[in-house]
Design brief:
Number of strands: 12
Number of helices: 8
Structural class: alpha/beta
Distance between the termini: 68 Å
Helix content: 25-40%
Oligomer: single chain
């Protein structure tokens, strides 16, 4: 069972075991694994002096992480990916990260060792207007980020705002200015008539 593997990873490695597999269901499909960050550390040796076991590449391996784990995820995402972790599942269903941390963990900044977030989690990027504009202008964030939190205000055209809100929500309580041009006002007037 999992607790035995967690407690005995070093011993298993010394006996010639290299990989952990989740096993198969009655139809032959991988059961997958959902582990805490501490369990992943114990099984793989990530963060320690020794490398222990990796996960079977055919298994879907999720690591449960919370807001307090972000610095560890930033530091260890490459090792987690190499050990066979497929995605991060938020313990609470939501995480707020800086753009730099999100980029580093997921590899959006061009790294091949990125680990994504589990589908359905509410991922918010918090950042300056420059950061948020960079997110809005890069299609790689669509579907990976749910919400945006602007730390120093943001000004968008009506067209840019409408485009952004099809893919993201804006966290409440922030300064977001939407500018209207003459054509926007004519369109609004025609829609109201």
């Amino acid at each position: 069972n999992l607790s035995t593997v967690v407690a005995n990873a070093a011993t298993l490695k010394s006996l010639g075991v290299d990989q952990v597999s989740a096993g198969l269901d009655a139809l032959g499909n991988s059961l997958g694994l959902s582990l805490t960050l501490a369990q992943v550390h114990s099984i793989t040796g990530i963060g320690g002096a020794n490398a222990y076991l990796t996960f079977n590449p055919s298994d879907t391996v999720l690591v449960l992480a919370g807001q307090g784990d972000i610095a560890t995820l930033v530091a260890e995402h490459g090792a987690l990916k190499a050990a066979g972790v497929d995605a991060i599942k938020t313990a609470s269903g939501a995480l707020t990260l800086s753009k730099a941390n999100f980029d580093e963990i997921t590899g959006i900044a061009g790294g091949a060792n990125g680990v994504g977030f589990s589908a359905g989690d509410q991922i918010t990027i918090s950042g300056s207007a420059t950061d948020i504009n960079a997110v809005l202008s890069n299609a790689n964030y669509v579907g990976k980020v749910s919400a945006l939190l602007i730390t120093n205000g943001l000004s968008l055209s009506l067209a840019d705002f409408n485009s952004a809100r099809t893919n993201y929500t804006f966290a409440s309580g922030q300064t977001l200015a939407v500018s209207f041009g003459d054509n926007d006002l004519l369109s609004l007037r025609n829609n109201l008539a």
